[in-house]
Write a structure and sequence with these properties.
Residues 4-134 form the VOC domain. This is Methylmalonyl-CoA epimerase. The protein has 139 residues and is an alpha+beta fold. It has one domain (3-138): 2,3-Dihydroxybiphenyl 1,2-Dioxygenase, domain 1, CATH 3.10.180.10. The chain has helices spanning 15-25, 66-74, 88-97, and strands at residues 3-11, 29-36, 43-50, 53-60, 77-85, 102-109, 115-119, 128-133. It has an eight-stranded mixed β-sheet with strand order 2-3-4-1-5-8-7-6. Strand 6 and strand 7 form a beta hairpin. The longest helix has 11 residues, at 15-25.
């Protein structure tokens, strides 16, 4: 099964300040900035490319968003690491055969066409791990 790091999600309090750091200090390029208003997500995002790597800066837009809850518990910083797979459904099935469980309520397709789900972090030493694919790129 093909798998590679897709992006690293970083929880931030000030999106503009974070964008400035990642573009000015680290030489990244701001590729996209948008707000996800979907219930249970409520996050403003900035997508930064640094070389071939992708950073998603995540600022909560409500007190109940997963990013807000994360920051309340752990503070700002690395929120998750996302791994791109060829086929999300197949990857989920394979991992479940090996005893890995997922946070079923996180399975979704973003407005940008990425399908994703988060593994239960107890399998990864507390690291939030996202699996994702881009089915529209296969057509």
């Amino acid at each position: 099964m093909f798998m590679q790091i897709d992006h690293t999600g970083i929880a931030v309090r000030d999106l503009d300040e974070a964008i400035t750091f990642y573009t000015t200090v680290l030489g990244g390029e701001l590729m996209d900035r948008y707000t996800n208003t979907a219930t249970g997500v409520e996050t403003e995002l900035a997508v930064i490319h640094i070389g071939e790597d992708v950073i998603e800066l995540l600022r909560p837009t409500s007190n109940t968003s997963p990013i807000a809850r994360f920051m309340k518990a752990r503070g700002k910083g690395v929120h998750h690491i996302a791994y791109r797979v060829d086929d999300l459904d197949q990857a989920i099935a394979k991992h479940m055969q090996n005893g890995i469980t997922f946070l079923d309520d996180t399975l979704r397709t973003t407005a940008k066409g990425r399908r994703l789900i988060y593994m239960d972090p107890r399998h990864s030493g507390g690291v939030i791990t996202e699996l994702c694919d881009y089915p529209t790129e296969k057509q």
